[in-house]
Design a protein that fits this description.
Number of helices of chain A: 6
Oligomer: heterodimer
Order of helices and strands of chain A: HEHEEEEEEEHEEHEHH
Largest sheet of chain A: 4 strands, antiparallel
Structural class of chain B: alpha+beta
Radius of gyration of chain A: 21 Å
Strand content of chain A: 25-35%
Number of strands of chain B: 11
Shape of chain B: elongated
Structural class of chain A: alpha+beta
Number of strands of chain A: 11
Number of helices of chain B: 5
Mean pLDDT of chain B: 92
Distance between the termini of chain A: 68 Å
Strand content of chain B: 25-35%
Helix content of chain A: 25-40%
Helix content of chain B: 25-40%
Distance between the termini of chain B: 61 Å
Low-confidence stretches of chain B: none
């Protein structure tokens, strides 16, 4: 076996293990626009033309998967995707004060190397329902406890690399949260802002607010009549 | 072997930094800065390698630099320093070339909007979405929006209005020309678009409320339209 064959085989072995552990990632619904193919001959055909198929990168946080697929006309192709190493939906939470104002946090994001106004959010853990993630993030980022936590809906943020299926909540807070704690500052949260719906609209129009979780939670809450 | 692998990954990182410096921006008020000196990078990689060995995982997971690369995608692990002086690492993935994505809300002369049913590989499911795509080299967001409307729905546009930015991507409102009808067949079988739906904004609200529309671009376009008082 040469180096090339060995590398391909180990990537396909990791792929087969992932498929056993998380079969949902490899679903081929009857109406799929293109099905994932698992037989080695076609995987090799795809790899010869487009590069290795399988788990091509892995670390404790993400996996990079390249799948061989067959379109409905029988043609073969390749798709790649980024998969979280630990399954579990993230949750974001829109905090609303008794007077109807919304709480935003100023967060520094590594992916853009910039500060963004957004609502609290965090990664899920395998054994945590979204509700618990939402409550944890409210506590960690705002030092706040929700009087009531309402599931608004699901959000698919799609960078073209992954589809997230994250959960969005609305939290009714009893009062104004304290200033950011030392832990929050270390995490990259410097400031909170309390805004009315009209002020939030203004931030959207001026481009000050561009976070997909915040925009979606705001829209969900508005279409359901949960905001003043 | 370890030293050689690390050096290669850092050399690719330095090349990327020279080509696309904005990815490595350290604004003066950054909450954590990316560190580029080799000693700090090695310290972060060593600390991670030790923790990984303790868990029985490959120590190369802790390397700093470009840790994966193919024709479409890069995975980067940066060494960072927090404001309290602590060192750490962040991993991120980025497209192999720069470019913005543009999404576009198609609006017919009678005010109805067009949604497309798109099969996404990442979730292995169908999603109701608005047309979107990545820019080709050298093309603007507005050109991308126009191209996607043509490619996905066969629609010609009278006017495109910028609605806003979503995590760096651009979102437009397209006033579709009179007499145009969206088609689900123009995109071709490989694209994974089987169905289009033409609905009023009130019907769109219902689909959002009942959880039928979850696409971040469609939701953001709708939020922009509401915030701007268009709906």
């Amino acid at each position: 076996m040469n180096d090339n064959d060995q590398r391909r085989s180990s990537r396909l072995d990791a792929y087969a293990r992932l498929r056993t552990q998380r079969p949902r990632l490899f679903a081929n619904p009857p109406d799929a626009a293109f099905e994932i193919v698992f037989d080695r001959a076609r995987q090799d055909e795809v790899a010869d033309e487009y590069g290795d198929v399988g788990v091509v990168y892995e670390d404790p946080y993400i996996l990079l998967v390249r799948d061989a697929v067959a379109y409905r006309d029988g043609e073969l192709g390749v798709y790649f995707r980024v998969v979280k190493a630990v399954p579990g939906a993230a949750a974001a939470v829109l905090p609303v004060l008794p007077d109807g104002r919304i709480v935003l946090v100023r967060h520094f994001r590594h992916s853009t190397r910039q500060w963004h106004w957004e609502i609290p959010r965090g990664h899920g853990r395998a054994d945590h329902p979204g509700e618990r993630t939402a409550a944890r993030e409210l506590d960690e980022e705002l030092g706040a406890t929700a009087g009531e936590l309402i599931l608004l809906g699901r959000l698919d943020t799609d960078s073209g690399l992954s589809v997230s299926g994250d959960e969005l909540y609305l939290a009714r807070l009893d009062g104004v949260p304290p200033p950011p704690t030392a832990d929050a500052v270390a995490e990259g949260i410097d400031e909170i802002r309390l805004v009315t719906v009209a002020e939030l609209d203004e931030m959207v129009v001026t481009g000050e607010l561009t976070d997909s979780f915040t925009l979606a939670a705001y829209l969900f809450a508005r279409t359901r009549g949960l905001l003043p | 072997v370890t030293a050689q692998r690390r050096a290669l990954r850092l050399a690719a990182y330095e090349r990327l930094r020279a080509e696309r410096p904005h990815l490595f921006h350290n604004p003066p008020d950054a909450a954590f800065e990316i560190v580029f000196d080799r000693a700090a990078q090695d310290q972060v990689a060593d600390t991670a390698a030790e923790a990984l060995r303790g868990k029985g995982l490959p120590e190369e997971y802790g390397d700093i630099g470009v840790v994966y690369e193919d024709a479409y995608l890069l995975v980067i692990r940066d060494a960072v320093r927090f404001r309290d002086g602590r060192l750490g690492a962040y991993v991120r993935s980025t497209h192999a070339s720069d470019g913005v994505a543009a999404a576009v809300l198609p609006v017919l002369p009678d005010g109805r909007v067009v949604l497309v049913r798109h099969f996404r590989h990442e979730s292995r499911q169908w999603h109701w979405e608005i047309p979107r795509g990545f820019s080709e080299p050298g093309s603007t967001g507005i050109e991308t929006a126009r191209r996607e409307l043509d490619e996905e729905l066969g629609l010609l546009v009278d006017e495109l209005t910028y609605l806003g930015s979503l995590d760096g991507d651009e979102i437009y409102w397209a006033s579709v020309a009179n007499g145009q009808t969206p088609s689900s067949t123009v995109a071709g079988g490989h694209e994974g678009i089987d169905e289009v739906r033409t609905i009023t904004p009130a019907e769109l609200y219902t689909m959002i409320r009942d959880g039928t529309v979850n696409d971040s671009f469609a939701l953001a376009a709708c939020a922009f339209a509401v915030a701007r008082g268009r709906w």
